[in-house]
Amino acid sequence: MTAGLVKEVQGGRGGELTLVTWNIHGAVGTDGARAPERIARVLIEIDADIVALQEVPLGGAAAASADVLAGLARATNRRAVAGPTLDTPQRRFGNAVLARWPVTEARTLDLSFGGREPRGALDVDLLCNGEALRVVATHLGLRPRERRAQIAQLLTAFDRPGLPVILAGDINEWLLWGRALRMLAGHFRAAPAPATFPSRWPMLALDRVWMHPASRLASVQAWSHGEAPVASDHLPVVAHIAAGARDR
């Protein structure tokens, strides 16, 4: 990352929070180039308070396993929390959260299913302008049975009523009325779902944001500006969260 990418961070804007979730595809773009600095430029342009990332290289002994998260944290001037789903001496890879505010606690949840690719969720508590906020960043599996089991496991973890919670990530569910989405909508209430995949010609709404209480989720949009359609095979999703506690 170059020094020119580093941006001074100010406090929250008018009390509203901005969150972005993005599967960055290992920082490899649709042009085949591995360019973490391109991911950083898109995130700086969005300037979100909270960033939930999937498919993030988190370092390791192998030369190809650079710590992309550390570079993104420096470039965006955000606090970083890693949630590896693959964690070996040679390679660490998985979910991550970048946040403008202090992180008070972080947990990882193993969502691996049978012999399928390791999956997980990163569960982070933040103190945002004096308010406790829980953010869960996840990347679910490719098969319907796998996703259903993972969502059931996730929902049992949401056991602290009264604490605002955001679930964000690559849900990998493309069926509009798929059972996985019905399970999540039943817990969080339906939320806007813009198409994000493939990034150049988005047709499928694989990347999602939900919040409880749902009334605080003011808007959800795909970000297709600038380098975003080339930086990854998914588009980022940007959500605006209203300040303060408002009941559903």
TrEMBL record:
One of its GO terms (molecular function) is endonuclease activity. It comes from Paraburkholderia guartelaensis. InterPro entries: Endo/exonu/phosph_ase_sf (IPR036691), Endo/exonuclease/phosphatase (IPR005135), GPI-anchor_lipid_remodeler (IPR051916). This is Endonuclease/exonuclease/phosphatase family protein. Residues 20-234 form the Endonuclease/exonuclease/phosphatase domain. The keyword Nucleotide-binding does not apply. SUPFAM superfamilies: DNase I-like. It comes from the Bacteria. The keyword Thylakoid does not apply. Keywords: Endonuclease, Hydrolase, Nuclease. PANTHER family: CALCOFLUOR WHITE HYPERSENSITIVE PROTEIN PRECURSOR, ENDONUCLEASE_EXONUCLEASE_PHOSPHATASE DOMAIN-CONTAINING PROTEIN. Pfam families: Exo_endo_phos (PF03372).
